[in-house]
Structures are given as structure tokens and as C-alpha cells.
Amino acid sequence: MTAWTVFTVAFGGFGVSPPPPPTPSPPVACVVSSNRWHSSSFAPQDGTFSVEFAMIPGGARVNSITGLSFGRANEYTDLAATVRFSPEGAIDSRNGAEFAARTSLSYKAGARYQVRMVVRVRAHTYDVYVTPPGGAEQALALNHAFRSEQEDVDALNHWAVFARAGSHQTCEFSGPRADVAANVRPVEDTTPPPVEPAPVKPPPVETPARSPGARGGRGGGAGATAVLVGAGDIGNCGTETDQATARLLDRIEGTIFTVGDNAYPDGSAENFARCFEPTWGRHRDRMRPSPGNHDYRTSGAQGYFEYFSAKAGPRGRGYYSYGLGAWHIVALNSNVSVSSNSPQVRWLRQDLAANPATCTLAYWHEPRFSSGEHGNSAQMQPLWEALYEAGADVILVGHDHNYERFAPQSPDGRAEPRRGIRQFVVGTGGTRLRGMQSRVANSEVRNSNTHGLLKLVLHPNSYQWEFIPVAGQSFTDKGTGQCH
Fold first, then answer.
1. Do the beta carbons of residue 57 and residue 85 sit within 8 Å?
2. What is the pLDDT of residues 127-176, one digit of tens each?
3. DSSP H or E run through 67
4. Does 12 fall in a domain?
5. Is 273 helix (H, G, I), strand (E, B) or coil?
6. Helix (H/G/I), strand (E/B), else coil: 156
């Protein structure tokens, strides 16, 4: 009789169960790559962070990859930072438009390679360190650039594996850790954010005799019908779709709005000169812009304020208002503080009180509500609350690279057909589009594969909207709404 059986008999008379056998250790968590993409999420990262994992090739000559992306990866171009078992039998990493490695490191089937990646999202660069079996850590890549198709990404939140030939395992993925910045050799820009000036009285509302760029008798005076047209997420030298949307502007009259991220990737003077001026820039005289987070990658959005000059509002502040037809229009800045007691929100409340109108529209970059990759942002709620209390009608935003229209709703997301504000996400101005997540509440129309513009015809007591696609695309969205 075994010791275990004796123990059971000895305790059986007392109704006591024997102690359970020890729980075996769980197997090491590994994901095996194949010709189908496998993605897993982690907390969104928009600064400097590190991740670690092990990679085990399934053969001596495979073609398989592990990488980081924003949203789920469905193709190679979705990966910003990568490590690859190349078909030539070496380990390498993507550097912009090609794979490269600063040291030759061949791999063996079944061997375990420990990988550490240090990623600088704002700089769009990363390092890769690899420890081979029984060896010391080696720097495989230093200051590699994100893949060229991901030069405009502003956060990473997934890791993915894929194999074009053979397979490999990625095991024990850990991180992200955000406490590595002090040990990173290529230092990211740590320029402190601009200090907001003290609140000032709102400037007089502009009521020009004609709206900027208006032609054919469609004046901008009070009571007239006016046209407001535009989009966000625009100038990218790596795409041609910003040229296509600019050609739409060539044939549409009216004032042009932008909802941020005007010039990729960093909003520098060079980015504006090379990637915005040749396309949308020919319509600058009739633009009323707002800045995005990519415009602020240049310290204080200096390139943005220099390019647009007085049209961008007071330098360092970036929020202002103007009159267009019978409408009051407010351009805001989601890149400086929008807390309830911030200078911007205090200014907004003063501006709305000083300029009561039957119809009010506001625009800025980051959405309060979105089914896109960035999702809802509660940080934007104070702007919504001020506008909602003043009876505003329409909000335009960008940031997520897609088009989405919402039903009128309250700042906390309750459907309100009579008093609510209708929001449009129009991140379709030219840079690469992105997929969408699960539909959020009150979303009425969504599209993530069509570049184009949103055109609004502003009547004294109502408005018409139309999404106009670029040539060769067919998606559109049309409708009307009444002012409160």
C-alpha cells in the first residue's frame, strides 16, 4: 500500500478529505506564428517604453516576425517596430523602408533568443537588444526608424506575430515598462509643454463682409448662407491622398476648417513646406485651422503657428472664434489644458456668453466620442459641457483616421435628439486611414476606407452636411439638422 493510500484510510473515519496534490506549474505562455496574423493588446503607450520576450525559430531558414503596432496588425505595413527571423538565417529589424542589423547574428532552429525592445514613440525610433543562448546581450538595432508606413503613428498598443515561411514562437511577452527613459541612449525630445498664458477676454467675433474665399455671391455676412468645408489628419509626404482631397477643395467654395495634424510627422516648418504647402497650402488664405498632437511634436507647435500666422489665433494659445454667416464658430485646441478651470475653458465660456447665436459650431482635434482606434476621451468633456450649456449644435474633430457621424448627444454620451450636439469625426484629409473598433453608443455612420472632405452648408437656422469622397471612391453621407 502506498503512503498516499495509508493516509486516506487513516483520515477516512473522521470525514476529512486528503490534502490535494501540488498544482503543477503552468506552461510558459507562447504564441506560435503562422500565415495568419495573431495580435494581443497592451496598455497604450505614447512615450518611451520597453518590452521583453523570447523568440524561438522553428527552423534554420524561416521568414517570421514579431512586432508592435497601433491597433491589431493585419499586414506587415501595420507594424511600426519589428524583430525578424530572416529567410537568410539571421536576425534583423526594420529600419524605415528596409530590414537591417548593426551586427550579424545567425539563428538556430529550436534555440531561444531573449529580446528587449526600447521604443520612443514620439521620436518614431527604437532599439533592439538580443541575448543568444549562453551569450551576452547584443545591440541588434540602435535608433532604428519606425517602418515608413507608420511615420504618423502616435501610440502603440498591440504586439503581433506572423510567418510568411516556417514559423517561430514568441514566449513570455512582458511589459510595457515606462521606466526606462533614463537608460535610453538616443534621448527623445523632453521639451516641456508650452505654458498657457493667463486667461484674456475673448476677442471680438470676426464678421467679415464675405467669408474667406467665398465667391459667387455667397457672402459671410450675418443672415447669409455660408459654406464650411474641411477635414483633419492631412499633409503626409508619404501619401498622395492629400493631393486628392486638395483637388476637391479646388472646386468647393467657402471657408476651410482643419481639425488638426496638419503636417506629418512632426508639424515642423519643413513638414509644412514639403507636405502641406504643395497641396492644401494653395488654399491657405481661406483656412481657419486648429492644431493636432502631431503639430505639437515640434516644440510649442512652432511650425504650425509660423505657417498659419494670425489665422491660427494667438501664438501659444491656438483657440479663437469668428462669425460665418449667421453662425458663431469656435476653433479650440485639444493639445493644451481643457480641464474645467483651465484658461481655455474659461475663455470658451466667456466667448459663448459674449456671442449668443441661434447656431454654434466648434472644432478641434481629439474626439470626445469615437469608434476609432483612440476611442472615447473623457478629457474632452469640459469642452462639451461648456458648449452644451450654451446650446451649441455641431462639433467637428479628427485624430482617428476615419469618418464617423454621431446622433445628437449630451456630454456624458446620452442620446438627446432635441438638445444634444452632433459630432463628426473627419480624420480623412490625406494621411493613411485606420480601422475601427466596436461601435460606440450613438454612432450613426462609420467609414474607414475613404478619404474625403466634410462640407457643411450653414443656413441661419439649420445646416446641411455632405461627406465628399476623393475621385474613384463612392462612399458618401448626407443629411440636414436644425439649430437649437
1. yes
2. 999 999 998 999 999 999 999 888 778 889 999 999 999 999 999 999 89
3. strand 63-69
4. no
5. helix
6. strand
Q: Are residues 139 and 267 in the same domain?
A: no
Q: Please tell me whether residues 167 and 237 are part of one structural domain.
A: no
Contact status, residue 81 vs residue 119, Cβ threshold 8 Å = yes
HSE at residue 210, side-chain half, CA atoms within 13 A, is: 12
Query: In this structure, what CATH number is given to the domain that contains residue 350?
Result: 3.60.21.10
Phi-psi region of 431 (alpha: psi -120 to 50; beta: other; left: phi over 0): beta
Extract the runs of DSSP E, i.e. beta strands, from 112-155. 113-120, 125-131, 138-145
Is there a single domain that holds both residue 161 and residue 257? no
Residues 6+ apart with CB under 8 A from 6: none
- CATH (domain of 87): 2.60.120.200
Grid coordinates belonging to 125: 525610433
Rounded to an integer, what distance in angstroms lies between the CA atom of residue 22 and that of residue 25? Answer: 9
More confident residue, 309 or 202: 309
Return the ∠ at Cα 438 (arms to 378 and 423), rounded to 5°: 50
Cα within 13 Å of Cα(341), Cβ side: 0
Give residue 301's Cα distance to chain centre. 17
Pairwise CA distance, residues 400 & 224, whole Å: 33
Choosing from 146, 180, 214, the residue where a domain stops is 180
How many residues comprise the chain? Answer: 484
Over residues 393-413, the pLDDT tens digits come to 999 999 999 999 999 999 999
Q: Give me the residue label for grid cell 475663455.
A: 347
State the amino acid at position 205 in one-letter form.
Answer: V
Asked if 343 and 473 sit in the same domain, the reply is yes
Nearest alpha-carbon partner for 68 in 5, 13, 147, 9? 147
DSSP secondary structure letter of residue 112: -
> Does residue 376 fall inside a structural domain?
yes
Owner of C-alpha cell 519643413: 270
The DSSP symbol for 124 reads T
In-domain check, residue 21: no
Q: Is the pLDDT of residue 25 over 70?
A: no
- The last residue of a domain, from among 161, 180, 199: 180
**128 CA to centre of own chain:** 25
Domains of the chain: total: 2
Q: How far apart are alpha carbons 6 and 18 in whole angstroms? A: 11
Question: Domain limits at 70?
Answer: 30-180
Distance CA 463, CA 454 (A): 12
Query: CA–CA separation, 277 vs 271, rounded Å?
Result: 9
275/384 same-domain check: yes
Note whether 263 and 235 are within 8 A (CB).
yes
pTM, 2 dp: 0.70
Q: 258 and 113, same structural domain?
A: no
Decide if 161 is inside a domain. yes
